[in-house]
Amino acid sequence: MIQFQHTILALPFVLAGAWLAMQGFPGFRIVFYIVMAAVFARTAGMCVNRLADLEIDRHNPRTSGRPLVSGEIPLWVPKIVAVICLLMFCLTAFML
């Protein structure tokens, strides 16, 4: 359900943006919270996307075998994960 490798691929761009915004290394504490916020935001976004595309995925042969579409994962799981990740994103963003 979650493409963690895509999150890792996006992190250099997130960290480069932080470096440019701070005009230098922002510090380990800030880097930690930035990485956590990016992971939580992306995970929440991916869960919402899976829910939004559920009907489309059912009719697409390439995506019809995904765990959410096939029923391996109940619909409440991505909803709960998205809410928790959004709350954690807000918390980590506040800590910045």
Write a brief caption for the model.
By secondary structure, the chain is mainly alpha-helical.
Key phrases:
mainly alpha, 96 residues, Tetracycline Repressor, domain 2
Write up what this structure looks like.
The protein has 96 residues and is mainly alpha-helical. The chain has a single domain (4-95), classed as UbiA prenyltransferase (Tetracycline Repressor, domain 2, Orthogonal Bundle). It contains five helices and no strands. The chain has helices at 4-22, 28-52, 54-59, 67-70, 76-95. The two termini are 28 Å apart. The mean pLDDT is 94.
How are the secondary structure elements laid out?
Elements: H1 4-22, H2 28-52, H3 54-59, H4 67-70, H5 76-95
Shape: elongated
CATH H level, superfamily name: UbiA prenyltransferase
Return the string of H and E elements.
HHHHH
Q: Percent range for helical residues?
A: over 70%
Low-confidence stretches: none
Rg on CA atoms, Å: 16 Å
